[in-house]
Design goal:
single chain; 328 residues; P1 Nuclease; 4-stranded mixed sheet; 4 strands; 8% strand
């Protein structure tokens, strides 16, 4: 359900690069990140300081190389933020040090974040947002550093709201829990993480812009104000709770009659039906059969996180941008 209005070049670039990334690096797919960014853009414009915030974002992005090459001609703030929303995934192969900043590994069996355990050396999404928010707020930083910081923030706040980027069951955030989604025939390399990244969103059947409109219709000012209470840690802990209570705890037993194996072909991981010749000497991986029941019980959770992510992204950007404006 990727938006037909997203620039084709941006989507193609993103998808080609994302295919090469280690799965744990990804949170929402391009559609989810686009929706979070679009909501944030709309919320910023609704702010009493909306015009100034819009100008500030435009000034920061206008000379950014990626923005100039991929987002030319976009008029509205929500479109511009959506255009850069998956940039952080596209640079991951060239900048592997940014990989741990996409998630925080809070174990399934606990309820709260422990920086010493979950964010060693500051390498997690919580500290990633803090780091780049400080850069964005500092007018003494180079223009290229501030535009990069803005792009990282747009992406990382979105990442934080995909529940499986805040929890781990020794399975790379659900990437090693293999799934047959709605009875798909081929042994696709589908997994619980991917279901939450993109499959639930895709099945709803909206374009990115259409989904944004739908989610904003149910978002009142009181709810938006409530969403921004707390801080990065409490937001991550809440998402962790959803990962445990919904993504993990609602899984059925694995289907003992449905198995596959994973093989490497030209450095690409492929899944084969168990019993085929390629599976010789490979571990047998049983799948979870997920369909309408799992979708129905989790769609509202996904939509709630997209709303929260968008509103909170607007708040994080507003705080940094207004700090920078006050130092003029």
């Amino acid at each position: 359900m990727r938006s037909k209005k997203i620039l084709p070049g941006v989507v193609t670039l993103s998808l080609c690069l994302l295919a090469a990334l280690p799965a744990r690096a990804l949170a929402w797919g391009p559609a989810g990140h686009s929706i979070v960014a679009r909501i944030a853009g709309r919320q910023l414009l609704k702010d009493e300081n909306g015009k100034a915030l819009n100008v500030a974002v435009n000034n920061i992005l206008r000379n950014d190389t990626f923005f100039k090459q991929n987002c030319k001609g976009l008029k509205t703030l929500d479109e511009k933020l959506a255009c850069v929303a998956s940039w952080a995934d596209s640079v991951r192969p060239a900048r592997p040090e940014t990989g741990p900043l996409h998630f925080v590994n809070i174990p399934r069996g606990v309820t709260s974040y422990d920086a010493a355990r979950d964010c060693k050396k500051g390498a997690c999404v919580i500290e990633g947002v803090r780091k780049y928010q400080a850069v964005l707020a500092d007018r003494q930083q180079k223009a290229s550093r501030r535009s990069e910081a803005l792009k990282f923030i747009v992406h990382f706040v979105g990442d934080m709201h995909q529940p499986l980027h805040d929890a781990d069951d020794k399975d790379l955030g659900g990437n090693e829990k293999h799934v047959r989604w709605f009875g798909e025939k081929s042994p696709a390399c589908n997994n619980v993480h991917k279901v939450w990244d993109s499959e639930i969103i895709r099945r709803a059947g909206f374009s990115d812009a259409g989904y944004t409109d739908s989610l904003l219709k149910g978002l009142g000012d009181a709810a938006a104000a409530d969403f921004v209470q707390g801080d990065l840690v409490s937001w991550a802990e809440a998402a962790h709770g959803l990962a445990v209570g919904n993504a993990y705890d609602l899984l059925p037993a694995q289907d003992q009659n449905d198995a596959l194996c994973k093989v490497k072909v030209n450095k690409e991981t492929r899944c084969l039906a168990w019993g085929t010749a390629g599976c010789k000497n490979q571990p047998r991986l049983f799948r979870y059969a997920l369909g309408q029941s799992y979708y129905d019980r989790n769609r509202a959770v996904v939509e709630g996180q997209l709303r929260r992510g968008g509103v909170r992204l607007a708040a994080v950007l507003k705080e940094a941008l207004e700090k920078a404006m006050s130092s003029q």
